[in-house]
Input
Amino acid sequence: MQDYIKIARPDHWIKNIAILPGILLAWAIGKPQDIQSSLLPVLMAFLSAFLIGSSNYTINEILDADEDRQHPSRCYRPVPSGKITPFLGYMQWFLLALCGLILAWFENCSFFLTALLFFVMGLVYNVKPIRTKDIFCLDILSESFNSPLRFLLGWFTIKCALLPPISLIMSFWMLGAFCMSVKRMAELRFIDNPKIAAAYRKSFSHYNQERLIGYALFFATLFGVFIGIFIMKYRTELVLATPFLAGAFAIYIYEGFKKETEMRCPEKLYKQKFLMAYLFLTLIVIVGCFMVHIPWIK
Output
């Protein structure tokens, strides 16, 4: 049983923290009289995301078994080491997805459609003939697309009359793509062997450190453009937070260059104490910018 729980990766549930900004920004941008919510829908939203995410992780583990056997550390995972019965693994994948989508159905239509897309993106990323994780650049873009989807799950949890701004959705997507580019770079540096890296993940045959740094800078620049559009239209006080955001990007990519870094496993980023402290400070600044009104900034 422990091995089946392990392939559902409950330790990765921390990634669903992206739901929280969706909830908070829906409250901040939408008018109070247009918003109706309670604690129960929020809890159901997180549980639905946990279950669908674990479903996607389960199918990922099953279909990646051959490649994982080529990895220096992932070869010890339950599936490549033969501890999982394929039939039971597929049943777990199906039941987790079904339960998550049923919970999403009881939220609202917009939430359900977003949750369904969250599930479908797991198939697009992992299942042939598409399997975007084997296609360079598309593996980054398709995996990072889960960031705006999680944000939208949070937004649609709150029954806000306003639709989420496209600039904000694109900001979350580009932020996720930046983080994925740094993760790929950290993985490549950890394996430190192009042939082994390509055997483990086909997209790595097209990657090198310089190209991934270029991708990271490209996505960081696009994030800056889209978040700038959002700031100027919805909350100009957030201009004061932009130096802190830029610093977070710089620290993140700096940590990605380290040989032994948690950037290979984003669910373990909480161990990066300096990064976590800096992100907490940045969060405080952002919340402060939403709470104060400074007319002369316009």
Remarks:
- The chain is about 65% helix and 0% strand.
